[in-house]
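forwarding from the other thread:

> can someone predict this with heme C?

sure thing
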Amino acid sequence: MPAALHNGHVKVSFRSCALLAAALAFFAAGCKSGPPPSKPLSQLTPTEQSGRAVFQTHCAACHYPTSTEPLHGPGLQALFKRPYLPSGAPANDDRVSSVILHGRNMMPPMGNQLDDQQMQDLLAYLHTL
Ligand code: HEC
């Protein structure tokens, strides 16, 4: 089902895409409804940079950090800037740590692979998205 939807999008002509993008930009600017931007990489603190390295190693294969589009799991841009996670659970450190440690459906548990420091750095980085 999502695959069929996706194909539908791909077939939309460039012209209507451009129009749609322009319209979306207009509305986003008008009512500020788009997700807030991520912190620029050049401004990450050392802790956040370590967290980014953890993300690249353990999460990037399944999650985009710069988009809300799904890869294998949902895109994580603006993860903590929205009130709810994709599952509908509240977007807070407790809930996100629990998903990372214990997994969720197709997402594998990573409690054995990350020590406390890596977990804290990772959360700090996720807050910048
Ligand atoms: C093998 C692929 C895979 C890897 C690796 C992976 N995830 Fe996921 N992740 C998923 C999938 C699939 C879901 C959707 C689970 C569901 O709700 O059914 C998900 C969901 C999530 C969610 C949303 C949970 C919710 O309640 O909606 C967060 C946050 C998340 N992952 C963070 C991470 C982080 C951080 C890492 C790295 C430590 C990571 N994931 C590694 C596949 C992965």
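The chain has two domains: 2-31, 42-126. thats all i got for now
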